[in-house]
Fold this protein.
Amino acid sequence: MERDSGLLIVDVQNDFCPGGALGVPGGDRVVEPLNRAAERFWEAGLPVFASRDWHPAVTRHFREHGGAWPPHCVQGTPGADFHPGLRLPAGAMVISKGIDPDLDSYSAFEGVLEDGATLASCLATLGVGHLYIGGLATDYCVRSSALDAVRAGLRVTVLTDCVAGVDLKPGDSALALEEMVRAGVRLATVDAI
Ligand code: VGL
Ligand code: ZN
């Protein structure tokens, strides 16, 4: 971790964990390594962000309204809560995304912080040049957020032991990681950074 590093924890919410509305296989396995990562960043004085999928009850993102997914992470429901084992530092900044009923908004860069700021503007203000990313799901929101981060000119590392994927088609997550690497994303485990 360099002095201009920041951590983005993507969508570690009940609905994306086993038993949830859109449970990712092994989704809860990312909680423990992400807790370690969050503690290390925060103790080093580095910013920690946590995005959450935060949909209205009616959105084109959901199957019944033309989208790809069963209802999940509806604002204010228990499924939208962060996993109870996730220990976010007191100063972690929450990014809500998927609020627009006309958009999927997989990327945390399409979300807003509590004060309405975008992630990109907040990262610029804080001087973050290297974004480390973990969370759910590898083949959707992690992929999309990592690719947007590269497009925003950031150095990007995806923490491979801190991600899990939907794999609607088997192999989707592995392909997503390959695509990210081709775009310039680095891969590392949390203990190696
Ligand atoms: C996600 C599918 C639908 C994600 C969000 O967080 O990766 N995947 N909505
Ligand atoms: Zn969603």
User: Anything to note?
Assistant: The mean pLDDT is 98. Residues 11, 16, 53, 69, 106, 136-137, 140-141 surround pyrazine-2-carboxylic acid (ligand 1) (CB under 6 Å).
